[in-house]
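Weekly puzzle thread! Below is a chain. First person to post its structure in token form gets bragging rights.
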Amino acid sequence: MTLTELKYIVAVAREKHFGHAAEACYVSQPTLSVAIKKLEEELDVKLFERSAGEVSVTPLGEEIVRQAQSVLEQAAAIKEIAKRGKDPLAGALTLGVIYTIGPYLLPELVRHAIQRTPQMPLMLQENYTVKLLEMLRTGEIDCAIVAEPFPDTGLATAPLYDEPFMAAVPSNHPLAQQDSVSTIELKNETMLLLGSGHCFRDHVLEVCPEFARYASNAEGIRRTFEGSSLETIKHMVAAGMGVTLVPRLSVPRDALEAPVRRRKNDEPHIRYLPIRTEDGLVTPSRRVVLVWRRSFTRYEAIAALRNAVYACNLPGVERIS
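Winning reply:
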């Protein structure tokens, strides 16, 4: 029995698919399948039920997978203990970031990290929240920057900032003439959403819950469309296909400048507007946090990363100390 075999069975239990698990482990499917079969023969138990296009964990397999998960966490802890006597800032820090934060925070964050802790390069991993939390538990990454809420996994957390949402509308849309837009006005528009798996999609549906019914059935395609990234959705907005909500840091810095400061031929195709709720009291926003395993011993590295985030120029967000 090896840690690699335990990693494979945890991946299959998570993905419910041998091919997807192999991709997640960066090995070929035959390699993964052979290793799992070897482990099943060694334990003399059946861990997975295999059928056409579907994989399920046996009752005994579930118990073994839970124990394997614990073993992997303990193995990661041993490596961290070994680093305890060394410089906690020496060596790479593996950081996971969700897709709707990475492109807008990382350019400045990496620059500040290089300036402040050149001995601690950041190894970056972009993915969905659920996947990053799983990678944290298995020790594949050291920490992650995600948005609340997320499943309670017993991880340590530190808030970084609250980020308001803004509405993005085509520049020739009637709403573009306003200084702000209300959630009531958004209800009458074609809403463009990120695809399933993106937590920001859920944030948008919290602000405009009436679009949830359109996002879950084919008939709603006339009212909602999906994109693979925020930048793709922005292009759809610019083309006049609908409106969307975006996090504040994704708004280009010159997009909020007064028209008189722009060049004559530099008119934007998208207008970004603050959002008013029905009660007018709360601006829709998300809380961005840093999360890591409680067993992670490089506390100074976490503090250094957090300070690097605070050093970034983050217009429009409220930092949380």
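Puzzle host: Confirmed. Bonus trivia for everyone else. Confidence is low (pLDDT under 50) at residues 214-223, 260-267.
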